Amino acid sequence: MNSQLSRAVVVVAASAITVSLAACGGAEEDDGGPGRSAKSDAIKVGLLLPENQTARYEKFDKPLIEKAVARLTRGKGQVVYANAKQDAATQSSQVDTMIAGKVNVLIIDAVDSKAIAGSVKKAKDAGIPVVAYDRLAEGPIDAYTSFDNEDVGKVQAQALLEALGDKAKDGQIVMMNGSVTDPNAKLFKSGAHSVLDGKVNIGKEYDTVEWKPENANTNMAAALSALGKDKVIGVYSANDGMAGGIITALKAAGLSTLPPVTGQDAELAGVQRIVAGEQFMTVYKRYAPEAAAAAEMAVALAKGEKFDGVINQLVDSPTTKRVPSVLVPGISLTKANVKATVVDDGVYTVAEICTEKLKSACEELGLK
To answer: What is the DSSP string of 57-120?
Structure first.
C-alpha cells in the first residue's frame, strides 16, 4: 500500500468524516470574490486541465465538469477554462490569470504536481479554495478527486498476468510507465509492481517523458533491440496513447503475433485496437462521477457550504494531510465487455467504434 494513500471502502457514511471547509465565511456580495464566499449560484469556477494530447480532457472532463457546474448552480455558474498543453510554467501563469479574474474556486489538474504548489498557495492566499483534479497537486489544497490510482495499476497488471497464463515466465515483459512529473504515474507503477513482481521477468522498464506515444515508441524499439523481439511476451503500458506507440513499434519489428499490451483511459483508438485484437485491455474510468465530484466540491467551496456526504477517502499529499477526497474505481475493459462498458454508458456509439475495417471483428463481438 502506498503510504500516501489511505484506502477505505468506496462509500463512507457522511457521519464518519466531517469536513470543515476552508475559505468559508459570511459574504456581503452575492457573487463573492477572492477572500469571500458566494451566496448566490452566480459563481466563477476556474478549470485548469494539463494537456490536450490525451483525448479524455477535451472530450470528457471539460464538458462533464461544465455540465455538472451548470446543474448545481441552476445555469448561473460560469466555468472559466484553460489548458496548459503540458507546460507547467504556462499553467502557473494561468493560475495568476484566474486569480486576477476573481474566480471563486479553482479546479486544477496539475501538469507537474510539485511545481504547482506555489500557485496553489498563491490562490489560497487570495482566498480562493482549490480542488485538485485527477492528479494530487501539492500545496494547501482543499479537496481532491481522482481514480484509485494504485488499484488501476493492479487492474492492469492482473489483466496482463491473466493474458500470459502459465507462460508468464517463459520470456520477458517490458514496463512502460508514465511521466515522473505525474504523481498518478507513480501510483500506477506501484500498483502494477505489487502484482507483477516475482511472477514475471521484467526485462526493461521505462518512465515515459510527458506520456508521449512517440517516446513510448522509441523506448519499445530500444527494448526489442536489447531483449530480442521473440523474447518479449507482454507489455505493461500505463495508458492507451503509449500503447498505440508501443504497438506500432511491435509491428515495425515484424512481429506477426502481438504480445498482450495493457492500457488506460478507454480512448476510442484504444478500444478499436482491443476490438481488432491488437491491444489486450484498457482501464475504463467513468469520468462522469469524477467530474461530478469535482464540481460538487468546487461549488460547495465557492458558496461556503459543506460536502461531507460526497467524501469517501482522506488522502495525504507530500504537503497536506487528510485531504477530503473522492476516489473512483477503474474497470478492466477487454473484448468481452466493450458493449457493457463504453457502449452501454454512452461514451461511444457502435458506429464510432466499428469502422469498415473493424466490421467483421465487431460482428464477432456482437457489436451491431
So the answer is: IIIIIHHHHHHHHHHHTTT--EEEEEE-TT-HHHHHHHHHHHHHTT-SEEEE--SSTTTTHHHH
224 vs 204: CA distance, rounded Å: 9
SS3 175: strand
User: How far is the C-alpha of 174 from the C-alpha of 178, rounded, in Å?
Assistant: 13
Strand partners of residue 283: 332
Q: Say what the pTM is.
A: 0.77
**204: nearest Cα among 222, 186, 179:** 222
Residue 283 has which C-alpha cell? 482501464
- Based on its alpha-carbon atoms, the radius of gyration of the chain, rounded to whole angstroms, reads 21
Exposure string of 120-140, with b = 16+ CB inside 10 Å and e = fewer, is bbbbbebbbbbbbbbbbbbbb
Per DSSP bridges, beta strands 331-333 and 323-328 are unpaired
Give the SS3 label for residue 236.
Answer: strand
pLDDT digits (tens, 9 = 90+) for 194-205: 999 999 999 999
